[in-house]
């Protein structure tokens, strides 16, 4: 069993932290595509690009991410996909004020 000294541990920890940080940034910068209504997760959650529920849409859901003012934004429920801010799915939860 190989022993790791303090210096080796700090080097390994620093390299790991830098790798994780750059990896997360690369994933966020990765081009996203609009959510397809035929996506299995979208079907399971009854996603629709146009909400039929008064006062409930992706734009005011707690899972929506990204910059406000865009017509399509990332959603935590559908990783790597963009949802329409006027859309709705059964996972909708009102964003706290």
TrEMBL record:
GO BP: any one term: aerobic electron transport chain
PROSITE patterns: HIPIP, TAT
Organism whose genome encodes this protein: Alteromonas halophila
Record protein name field: High-potential iron-sulfur protein
Domain High potential iron-sulfur proteins family profile: start-end pairs: 29-97
Keywords assigned: 4Fe-4S, Electron transport, Iron, Iron-sulfur, Metal-binding, Signal, Transport
Pfam families named among the record's database cross-references: HIPIP
NCBIfam families: TAT_signal_seq
Biological function: Specific class of high-redox-potential 4Fe-4S ferredoxins. Functions in anaerobic electron transport in most purple and in some other photosynthetic bacteria and in at least one genus (Paracoccus) of halophilic, denitrifying bacteria.
